[in-house]
């Protein structure tokens, strides 16, 4: 397999990102597709710009909370399928943030703050647009409109970590003139990642040589398509929402369990993919309380185990039969991810409490010096026999359950 380009390796080292959906739809509190799915009159929908104040949008607060979550990059919707730009579209359209009640360039605030705090800013751009009539009446003119909107972002906002496109799946047989679109990015932002969401039916598909990462929207693949041996190495990215919508939906209380979120983060790294955890901002631009709490929970896990997430990569090491456990390697240390441990305690207090859980791995050839939990540095006893390792994986200390526990192996 080919060696990744520097920008792609650096992207894989980011590991965990925060996805943010925000637009006019957020004011209606029923998901990002509400205009389309609920058949809202276009003229009526456009008037939402008159009440889009963004009064609670504080890029500083959001970026700091993302950093505390352990995210190394943030993808923000600069324009969703509704066609509304969160930035100054420089005369391309009046349907933008500077012509709304906000009268601010919200993308500039976001990018500047990300760069201030060493978080990579990524910009989502919808290619499918149900607001601009050119999308249906003169597709070539629409594509130039799209290219110019990306050129504005590429030229005027300083370093951009990447561009995240979404919507080509709506006209899957059309000529999207991707060479011109991606060429514009390469001209002004040569180190920016180019990602194009291939949709639910084409997860992992490489649609152009300039693509740097393939997507697996709402999918949990067993492997990543890194491209053929004679092609450029391509990264992979999974994404998941906390509930069932990407944009803020007040009446959607069907939230995923923290276990599912943490296990998805671990699974993504096990297959060598990055992962985006999505939140939707409220109509005024704040993070909903429940989303803040989820971000804190992820942050707690990352605070204890983050060193095993960012730069570590998949290995050929295998766990015992029927176990979800796996191992990552960062070039120096090995990290063992252990699932389904119990809490150590009196059996009358902690149901199923167990002190020691033998776990085995095969494929480890180097002599091991030490194994310890990342969360509390407790040293673990182990037996190494040829390429087989068995550790005594102690359960969580009473008062703790981090769902997946990580042990650091030093050689």
From TrEMBL:
Keywords, sorted A to Z: Glycosidase, Hydrolase, Signal
Domain of life where this protein originates: Bacteria
Class of the enzyme per the UniProt entry, highest EC level: hydrolase
Limits of the Glycoside hydrolase family 29 N-terminal domain: 9-307
UniProt-listed Enzyme Commission number(s): 3.2.1.51
Protein family per UniProt: Belongs to the glycosyl hydrolase 29 family.
Role summary: Alpha-L-fucosidase is responsible for hydrolyzing the alpha-1,6-linked fucose joined to the reducing-end N-acetylglucosamine of the carbohydrate moieties of glycoproteins.
Record protein name field: alpha-L-fucosidase
Lineage: Bacteria, Bacillati, Bacillota, Bacilli, Lactobacillales
């Amino acid at each position: 397999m080919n060696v990744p380009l520097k920008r792609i390796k650096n992207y894989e080292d980011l590991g965990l990102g925060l996805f943010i959906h925000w637009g006019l739809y957020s004011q209606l509190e029923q998901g990002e597709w509400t205009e389309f799915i609920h058949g809202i009159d276009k003229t009526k929908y456009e008037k939402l710009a008159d009440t889009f104040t963004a009064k609670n949008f504080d890029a500083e607060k959001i970026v700091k909370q993302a950093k505390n979550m352990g995210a190394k990059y943030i993808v923000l919707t600069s324009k969703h399928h509704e066609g509304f730009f969160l930035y100054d579209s420089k005369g391309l359209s009046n349907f933008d943030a500077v012509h709304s009640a906000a009268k601010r360039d919200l993308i500039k605030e976001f990018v500047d703050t990300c760069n201030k705090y060493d978080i990579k800013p990524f910009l989502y751009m919808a290619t499918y647009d149900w607001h601009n009539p050119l999308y249906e009446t003169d597709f070539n003119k629409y594509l130039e409109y799209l290219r110019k909107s990306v050129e504005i972002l590429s030229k005027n906002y300083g370093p951009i970590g990447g561009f995240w496109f979404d919507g080509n799946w709506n006209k899957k047989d059309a000529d999207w003139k991707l060479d011109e679109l991606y060429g514009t990015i390469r001209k002004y932002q040569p180190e920016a990642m180019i990602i194009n969401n291939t949709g639910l039916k084409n997860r992992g598909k490489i649609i152009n040589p300039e693509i740097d990462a393939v997507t697996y929207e709402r999918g949990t693949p067993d492997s990543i398509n890194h491209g053929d041996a004679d092609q450029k190495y391509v990264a992979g990215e999974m994404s998941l929402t906390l509930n069932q919508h990407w944009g803020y939906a007040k009446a959607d209380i069907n939230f995923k369990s923290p276990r599912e979120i943490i296990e998805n983060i671990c699974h993504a790294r096990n297959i060598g993919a990055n992962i985006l955890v999505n939140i939707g901002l409220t109509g005024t631009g704040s993070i909903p309380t429940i989303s803040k709490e989820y971000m804190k929970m992820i942050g707690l896990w990352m605070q204890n185990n983050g060193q095993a997430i960012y730069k570590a990569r998949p290995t050929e090491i295998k766990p015992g039969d029927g176990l979800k456990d796996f191992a990552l390697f960062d070039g120096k240390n090995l990290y063992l991810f252990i699932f389904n441990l119990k809490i150590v305690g009196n059996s009358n207090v902690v149901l199923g409490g167990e002190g020691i859980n033998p776990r085995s791995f095969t494929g480890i050839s180097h002599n091991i010096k030490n194994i310890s939990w990342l969360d509390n540095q407790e040293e673990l006893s182990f037996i190494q026999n040829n390429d087989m390792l068995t550790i005594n994986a102690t359960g969580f200390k009473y008062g703790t359950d981090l769902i997946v526990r990580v042990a650091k192996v030093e050689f």
